[in-house]
Amino acid sequence: MLSSSSTTSLSASLSSATSHTVTSDPQDITMETYWREVESIEEEREGEEEEEEGDERKSMDEVELEEAWLLGAGLSSLVTGTAETSRPTAEAVLSTLTRQQAATVRQRLDNYNATLRKINRQPARDVRDIFTEPDEDSADQHP
Asked: For bias kind Acidic residues, which ranges apply (predicted)?
């Protein structure tokens, strides 16, 4: 990932590179195409970073909204972190509701749990972390 200072210098070099006049020289056309592609890739990366931050905020908002709805409906026992033995099961609570109410609560509870799992999921390990190159010092020790 590029740091902000390198991104700034890259943006400055891109704007100076793309401000050249268009000529019929194939080399110049190739370079202009190259710089346009580099600029396009940088814009995509910036957009992806903003989307990832937005998705994370959206997930947290979803969890908070679902939790607030369940708490407001008097179903705090389904979302609080109390001990499993003292907490009534979701099915026991849902059995006291009408079908429509139970379906709504079940949908909210499923959405709440799925969002929590998505937030708490371990990120995928990078292949470079799994298959690291041996240290040069240790390679020198073994003939």
From this structure: 40-54, 132-143
